[in-house]
């Protein structure tokens, strides 16, 4: 596809998505957060009593806790003007035909049904606060795999959900926005993979925040039982408004003995969204968590996926890419908490800042007193394009064990003029040369994605990089 | 030839001849002036320089080492042993001068809490090399503060060694205020017994073409703990800068603990910055090799620790001081590597 065709296609896509953004909602809460709203959310979702109690506890902690005193400024986030619960005019369905045409068209444009047919074992699609489509292919269902929206799972599988939902993985009161999430969460994904089952085809959920001054608070809970394997991909986007929106999702992953979870998310929120997300995995003996995190959109992102390596030989691999343009501050990073012997973690990130954007890496590797012979390696590289752009690296390495090994390295710089000159001498334009160099820079991350997503991520980065040179 | 000088004393109870605060004139007096605080505040040039210090660093006491403009000191200057628990040293070098200062204090302050302040102002095209080594007794508390400013084309090479001690808190802030200013900061820490070493090094680039390098090495034995916070900050549109950090901690005991936060804050694209940090134990293969050559485990660990410090000790320009540093480390390690 030529550049001109790509631009034309993007323009058409934007028009379609803009049309979807004008869809009326079935229910939209009045701005602000009240006890009545929390009770109403729980009532509309027909939740059990224990979940309402959790929500009210979240509300109490939200009121008690203060805003974070560190990180990027959240002054532009008008919390009292947000609608915390917006239900689209659609019921959850297992067939795209039953999804209202306008909403379906949005996901068509985002390529979700096509991807489902080609490369996915299950797909979930969330529009504002509600999941509108959720389906798992029969072959996986027969093996006992559960792939449901979180709302359904709370009612249908309380024995799996109640003990794990915002308990010891991400506690409700961890910080102000986990408390808010507990109070108003809606939608999201629940995955359970039975012992020994290897789900060889990825599952995907797509979260679309459509309403102006909206908030999206989806909750994802993944339980991979002993010896199982699953790959889950999340995509996120929203139309652009002049007013601020909030995304405060939560992801909890429980990885049993010798189980493996690959979790990938490409978050391309529009530039009015505050993306304050919390993600954590608890990994038991011999288990593995693989994080892949791509952050391209939103005005402020604060996202630090965390691996708690609780069992002997547990492993965490994290790969991240962040891109900050005009008016954006991507404050991202990873955490690895080693609590058991022989645990290993690797963290590799790449960030690009341009047009006065700022990308920050904020990470933590912590080795506890029981984690004998733990190993960790962190590598974060940053590319700065334009003299007004900036980059920060704030890694913390902490060990309570003398027999542990931790290494960290980071480089910050700009695109070398020699590299551009060399490529131009081979017949490329400056723009093409920069694109190739950036492609190489993010390659370690992109290579880990399934082909379709790698192509999508590359294209998103290319679009962001347009007009950067000259 | 090395000149040994004692810092000027303003304390009323000073009477001993070996007190570093007593008035003994340096042999190269024309090149370097050692002034008590009361003399310094009468000195018009020094007074003007001190007035430029940030308001939170207002000084009321201390010894001033002053090198006038154009003076090139031939020999290093050695400060004598310390008897005082609180001291402030101000180093002022004017344009086109140079100074080499060695402060290998074998502190005799016993278990007393010690507080030191060091202020360095490097003039245009001036070069300052300063090495300080503090060998502290077990359990001794120590608070150190270093503040430095480097003017255009100025160069500062600053080496600090902290051996032993109890609770240590050292903060260093270096400002590169003039174009093409350069700083090299070397830090060496040997934490023993229940030592708690809290070290913070910050370098701020305020001018274009500036370069900074931080290199730190630490060895921890017993239940010692080290917390290092390193920061290189390059402001918005401060172009053509270099910033490097290299920090490593070697843990010689399974109960030793460490934390490193090597941070970079960069506000422009025309920079080359990097940092690397590691926390680890002696390499098993190296230990095995040394054991196979007949060394005991204790000797092997000691040798590895010395080798670990060697690249840093080599940065001390004075051979004699280099050997002093290594021999002090060796004696400290002697009974700590079981």
From TrEMBL, chain A:
InterPro entries: Fe-S_cluster_assembly_SufBD (IPR055346), SUF_FeS_clus_asmbl_SufB (IPR010231), SUF_FeS_clus_asmbl_SufBD_core (IPR000825), SUF_FeS_clus_asmbl_SufBD_sf (IPR037284), SufBD_N (IPR045595). It comes from the Bacteria. Residues 141-204 form the SUF system FeS cluster assembly SufBD N-terminal domain. Residues 207-441 form the SUF system FeS cluster assembly SufBD core domain. Transmembrane segments: none annotated. GO terms for biological process: iron-sulfur cluster assembly. NCBIfam families: sufB. Belongs to the iron-sulfur cluster assembly SufBD family. PANTHER family: FES CLUSTER ASSEMBLY PROTEIN SUF, UPF0051 PROTEIN ABCI8, CHLOROPLASTIC-RELATED. This is Fe-S cluster assembly protein SufB. It comes from Candidatus Uhrbacteria bacterium RIFOXYC2_FULL_47_19.
């Amino acid at each position: 596809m030529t550049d001109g065709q790509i631009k034309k296609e993007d323009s058409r896509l934007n028009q379609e998505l803009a049309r979807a953004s004008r869809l009326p909602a079935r229910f939209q809460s009045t701005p602000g957060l009240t006890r009545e709203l929390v009770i109403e959310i729980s009532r509309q979702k027909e939740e059990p009593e224990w979940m309402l109690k959790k929500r009210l506890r979240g509300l109490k902690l939200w009121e008690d806790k203060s805003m974070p005193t560190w990180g990027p400024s959240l002054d532009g986030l008008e919390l009292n003007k947000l609608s915390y619960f917006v239900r689209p005019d659609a019921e959850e369905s297992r067939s795209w035909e039953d999804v209202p045409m306008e909403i379906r068209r949005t996901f068509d444009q985002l390529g979700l049904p096509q991807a489902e047919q080609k490369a996915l074992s299950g797909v979930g699609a969330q529009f504002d606060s509600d999941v509108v489509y959720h389906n798992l292919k029969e072959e996986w269902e027969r093996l006992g795999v559960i792939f449901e929206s979180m709302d359904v799972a709370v009612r249908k599988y309380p024995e799996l959900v109640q003990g794990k939902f915002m308990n010891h993985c991400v506690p409700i009161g961890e910080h102000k926005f986990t408390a808010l999430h507990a109070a108003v969460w809606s939608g999201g994904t629940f995955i359970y993979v039975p012992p020994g089952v290897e789900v060889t085809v990825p599952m995907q959920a797509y979260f679309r925040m459509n309403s102006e001054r909206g908030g999206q608070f989806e909750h994802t809970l993944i339980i991979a039982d002993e010896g199982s394997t699953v790959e889950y991909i999340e995509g996120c986007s929203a139309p652009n408004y002049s007013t601020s929106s909030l995304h405060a999702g939560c992801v909890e992953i429980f990885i049993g003995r010798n189980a493996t979870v690959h979790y990938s998310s490409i978050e391309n929120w529009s530039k009015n969204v505050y993306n304050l997300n919390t993600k954590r995995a608890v990994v038991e003996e011999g288990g593995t968590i693989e994080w892949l995190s791509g952050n391209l959109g939103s005005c402020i992102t604060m996202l630090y996926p965390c691996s708690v390596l609780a069992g002997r030989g547990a492993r965490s691999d994290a790969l991240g890419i962040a891109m900050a343009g005009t008016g954006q501050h991507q404050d991202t990073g990873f955490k690895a908490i080693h609590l058991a012997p022989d645990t290993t973690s690797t963290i590799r990130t790449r960030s690009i800042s341009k047009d006065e954007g700022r990308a920050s890496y904020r990470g933590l590797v912590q080795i506890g007193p029981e984690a004998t012979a733990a190993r960790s390696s962190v590598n974060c590289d940053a590319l700065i394009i334009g003299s007004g752009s900036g980059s920060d690296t704030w890694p913390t390495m902490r060990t309570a064990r003398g027999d542990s090994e931790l290494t960290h390295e980071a480089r910050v710089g700009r695109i070398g003029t020699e590299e551009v000159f060399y490529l131009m001498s081979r017949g490329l334009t400056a723009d093409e040369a920069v694109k190739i160099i950036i492609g190489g820079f993010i390659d370690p991350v992109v290579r880990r994605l399934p082909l379709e997503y790698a192509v999508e991520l590359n294209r998103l980065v290319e679009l962001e990089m347009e007009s950067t040179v000259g | 030839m090395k000149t040994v000088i004692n810092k000027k004393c303003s304390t009323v109870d000073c009477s001993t001849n070996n007190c570093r605060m007593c008035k003994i004139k340096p042999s190269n007096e024309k090149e370097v002036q050692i002034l008590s605080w009361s003399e310094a505040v009468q000195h018009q040039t020094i007074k003007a320089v001190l007035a430029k210090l940030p308001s939170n660093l207002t000084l009321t006491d201390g010894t001033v080492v002053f090198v006038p403009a154009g003076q090139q000191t031939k020999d290093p200057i050695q400060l004598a042993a310390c008897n005082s628990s609180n001291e402030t040293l101000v180093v002022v070098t004017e344009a086109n001068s140079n100074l080499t200062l060695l402060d290998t204090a074998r502190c005799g302050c016993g278990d007393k809490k010690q507080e030191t302040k060091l202020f360095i102002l490097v003039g245009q095209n001036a070069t300052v090399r300063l090495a300080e080594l503090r060998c502290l007794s077990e359990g001794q508390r120590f608070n150190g503060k270093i503040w430095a400013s480097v003017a255009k084309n100025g160069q500062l090479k600053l080496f600090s060694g902290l051996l032993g001690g109890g609770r240590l808190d050292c903060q260093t802030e270096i400002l590169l205020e003039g174009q093409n200013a350069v700083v090299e900061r070397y830090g060496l820490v040997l934490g023993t017994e229940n030592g708690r070493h809290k070290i913070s090094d910050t370098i701020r680039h305020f001018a274009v073409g500036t370069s900074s390098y931080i290199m730190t090495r630490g060895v921890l034995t017993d239940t010692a703990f080290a917390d290092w916070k390193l920061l290189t900050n390059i402001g918005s549109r401060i172009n053509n800068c270099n910033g490097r950090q290299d920090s490593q901690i070697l843990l010689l005991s399974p109960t030793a603990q460490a934390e490193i936060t090597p941070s970079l804050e960069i506000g422009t694209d025309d920079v080359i910055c990097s940092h690397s940090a590691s926390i680890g134990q002696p390499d098993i293969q190296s230990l095995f090799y040394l054991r196979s050559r007949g060394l005991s485990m204790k000797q092997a660990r000691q040798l590895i620790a010395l080798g670990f410090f060697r690249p840093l000790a080599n940065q001390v320009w004075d051979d004699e001081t280099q050997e002093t540093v290594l021999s002090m480390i060796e004696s400290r390690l002697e009974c700590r590597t079981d």
